[in-house]
Amino acid sequence: AALHHRDLASTRHFVGGKVPLGLKRKALRVLVTGGAGFVGSHLVDRLLERGDSVIVVDNLFTGRKDNVVHHFGDPNFEMIRHDVVEPILLEVDQIYHLACPASPVHYKYNPVKTIISFPMNSFPFLFNNAKVEAKINARFLLTSTSEVYGDPLQHPQVETYWGNVNPIGVRSCYDEGKRTAETLTMDYHRGANLEVRIARIFNTYGPRMCIDDGRVVSNFVAQALRKEPLTVYGDGKQTRSFQYVSDLVEGLMKLMEGEHVGPFNLGNPGEFTMLELAKVVQDTIDPNARIEFRQNTQDDPHKRKPDISRAKELLGWEPKIPLREGLPLMVTDFRKRIFGDQDSAAT
Ligand code: NAD
Ligand code: UDP
């Protein structure tokens, strides 16, 4: 009977998002900033599939209409072309904040905007959106990054590690920008009592990644398909841990629906040197692909691997798809986008 006195608008009222038998779950209104991007568009797919209505706010800086075009015409889907550093007020139940240039090439393009505009300008508006609905506890989820650990002195990285970030380097606009975003998220949480969630995302790959954004997996896959040499930066012994995008999306949704603020590492603990990654790409696409060594970029972190014990224990989440299984799924998508459907059908 008590349920009648509550707004049953969301699964949030039910632990783990499970609706008691006999009660139909009411759809949520969800804002996804950066929803036309790589990760965002996969998240949008899942939210719509679940029956929610989704508003995407994206300025298409690195995102593409193509990533969400299959939802055009769906009454539960709306896309607004808008820069999140400008005010916008939308009444929603949940906000997934993904809008941000994510690859080193893109975030270094306008570093001052990356560090100042994103956290400082976009947050007051987004939090204002959350506040409109504060009566029903709207939630704000920040997609932070493993880059908050900088060039880590602790390995693997646990959420309690504070990191080793160069405050004046070429990557700082992104690393410090995301650290500031985490600070603001926690200050709004403590100060304004807003419900927040923080995800620290480790390197993620999959279909719809920007083809020429300079990230290592997209570079190697595109290079191997185009019969160009794989460009390994430095000695290739630096490591990263690569997570398939569907695993990340599941983690983000579990985090949003769960009881814990975080931060949570969301990543696949499978760790690879860049030379090992090149080998996986060769095995998957072209065993004869050549490797060419290039000078490394400044302040490149030497190693990175998530400790995901916290997410396993508190969210009941862990990634399922190893690199050798996920990579072919991305290759199929890249083949189509690089060569067009006809050629890919022939290969
Ligand atoms: P992406 O570049 O594909 O997506 C980012 C989206 O945000 C794009 O659609 C872009 O157009 C949009 N955007 C950028 N600036 C905007 C602005 N001012 N206003 C409105 N929209 C804007 O990148 P992604 O890989 O999907 O990353 C999504 C989020 O996840 C980012 O916040 C990124 O920092 C974080 N993240 C990603 C990874 C990864 O490996 N992919 C790792 C760590 C963190
Ligand atoms: N890298 C590489 N070749 C490339 C692009 C990147 O060897 O063509 C290396 C880069 O030096 C870094 C790692 O791959 O050590 C991951 O780079 P990416 O830009 O994908 O992600 P991030 O540095 O943000 O983890």
Automatic annotation (TrEMBL):
Necessary cofactors: NAD(+)
Membrane topology: Single-pass type II membrane protein
Name assigned to this protein: UDP-glucuronate decarboxylase
EC number assigned by the record: 4.1.1.35
Species annotation: Digitaria exilis
Top-level EC class: lyase
Localization in the cell: Golgi apparatus, Golgi stack membrane
Example GO molecular function: NAD+ binding
A GO CC term attached to the entry: Golgi cisterna membrane
Top-level taxonomy: Eukaryota, Viridiplantae, Streptophyta, Embryophyta, Tracheophyta
Any Gene Ontology biological process: UDP-D-xylose biosynthetic process
Function: Catalyzes the NAD-dependent decarboxylation of UDP-glucuronic acid to UDP-xylose. Necessary for the biosynthesis of the core tetrasaccharide in glycosaminoglycan biosynthesis.
Record family assignment: Belongs to the NAD(P)-dependent epimerase/dehydratase family. UDP-glucuronic acid decarboxylase subfamily.
Superkingdom in the source lineage: Eukaryota
Record key words, sorted: Decarboxylase, Golgi apparatus, Lyase, Membrane, NAD, Transmembrane, Transmembrane helix
Every NAD(P)-binding domain range: 31-328
Main location: Golgi
Pathway(s) this gene product operates in, as recorded in its UniProt entry: Nucleotide-sugar biosynthesis; UDP-alpha-D-xylose biosynthesis; UDP-alpha-D-xylose from UDP-alpha-D-glucuronate: step 1/1
Keyword Iron-sulfur: no
